[in-house]
Each structure stands twice: as structure tokens, then as C-alpha cells.
Amino acid sequence: VWKWPQEVVDWLGTNVPGRTTKEVTELINQQGFDEKYGMVFTEDIVKGAKSRYGFKSGTPMGNPKGYSSKYPEGMAEYVASIAQGKSTAELVEAVNRKYGAGTIGIRQMKAYKKNHGINTGLTGQFEPGSTPANKGKKMSPEAYEKCAPTMFRKGQTPVNHKPVGTESVRRNYKRNQMFVYVKVAEPNIWRMKHIMEWEKHNGPVPKMGSYMSMSGMRRFFTGKDEYQCSQEEKEEAANKVAGLSMEHQMLLVMSSGLDNEGDVYDYYLHHNAERCEGIKAAYAVLEKYGWSFTEEESQILNGTHEFYVPEEKKEGEK
Q1: Which DSSP state fits 69?
Q2: Which of 91, 113, 166, 172 sits at a 20 to 30 Å CA gap from 230?
Q3: 3-state class of 50 per DSSP?
């Protein structure tokens, strides 16, 4: 392999650190070595010499951040400097005016901003206090004539209007179950039919914050969780549930609510009046079926039982 003159090698060793191969090639061609020694310096030749003589530039490999072979050099800095408050269309117009028509389009500019982390500060939303583009403008007679046939008139009844008393089967997405709803008032007031039936016979539904799924109703008859039941047991329990009246099903729901209502006392053995009121409201329904409280049970619910700690006693007192 032909060796480079020592003068060129020394110069290369001094000027390679901190410079890319492209920069070294441009610089070495300005030293006159080509005429003095009849040498040719290209990027490939300089790159090979660096490797052969063990010179390292120490610069990062690859293209610098923001480099693009498609768009003009310095375009990213220019776009970032003018981007604040400008729309994509305005940026496209400015770039094409500076670098030539057709440099970039709307879709390319959207991607360019994202790839280069350029933020215009615009959200694409109407800001509070902004003036609508059509403020104070009336619809043209031609546009009104086109829209008139499909406009809603004041007092007009929609074609899908349902009269009061209409029943509709819908899915309650909160409970993921199908229920029958009844329209009870205009313009669009609906209630669950089974709750209306309950209230007709028993008054308002106690507010216990509970409902019972179909699997819970089956568990009431089997006494076991779903995974513990055979298919035959599940089917037998489901048939029993299907045979219940709506009123009996509501009683099961109420029973589940009572089970989950919580303790009638708090951490300090104080009377929890809110929970007790919910329980008393539920059992008020059962009284119609012959239920009654013992004297001690009434005292517990009323907060007069001796086991309660009076509210005025502080924590730690006996």
C-alpha cells in the first residue's frame, strides 16, 4: 500500500480530532498537497487514511439532528423561528416562498413539525373569547332555500316521538342488564317498570345503594358461588328465579342490600344514624308482610342501646 508523505500524515493527525470526514476533506483540499504531491483527496480516501493511520475524529456517527436529504439545510431552524401562532397552511406558504414553490405541502408540513418537535402553540380549538367566523352574518337566501325542507320548526313533533306510557326494552350499561322502561312524562322522561311496580305496592324503594345480578339471585337459592355450582344446579336456580314475581325479585334485591349495608356503628362504637335509617326504611316494607323488631333491635337502630359509646366521649375514654 502506497504510504502518504509524512507531512500529509502529520497534518491529518493534527486536524482530524473534532472534525467529520467531510470537514477534513474540504480542509485538506485547501492545503496544496494535491499539487505538491500529485494526490487526490475524496471523502472515501480520507476515511480510509484515518482508518489506516489510526486517527479518530471523536464526532458522533450518523447525520446530525435535523439533517434531511430531502429538505434544504437550515429549514428546521427557520420553521421553528416563525412557527409560533402560525397555522400549518401559513408555514407552508412561508417555506415555499423562501425555498421555492413545491418545497413542502400541507401533509408533509404536519409530519415535519411532529418529527422536529416544532410547536406552534395552536390547539386547533376555539379559544374562549374568540369571534366565530360567521358572527353577525345571515344565511344567504340560496342556502336558506336548500336547508328549509329539513329544518325543525318550533313546536314540531319529531317523527320518532313516543307518547307517555310507551314501554321500551333497553340495556342498562351500568348494570349490563336488559330492563323494561316506561315513558312517564314529556319530553323524554323514562323510568324502570319494575321500580314503578314496586312503588305502587310498597312505596319508595329504600336507598341502600345496592342491586342484585342474576348470578346473585341464583346464589340465593343454591347457597353457593357460581363456580361451585353444577350446570344442573344453575339451571334449577334460574328456573326458580324466572318463576318469581317482580315484587319477589325486588325483595331479593333488598335482602342483598341489607347484607351489604354495613355496620350500624363506627370505629369508636358511635351510632351510625345514616346506615340505621336505611335499614329501618327497608324493614318498613317487610312489616307489611308481618315482620316486627324486638325491643333490643329497635334500641340498636334508634341509637339508644347501652353498648353504644356516647358521641361526646373522646377517643381513649372508657
Answers
A1: S
A2: 172
A3: helix
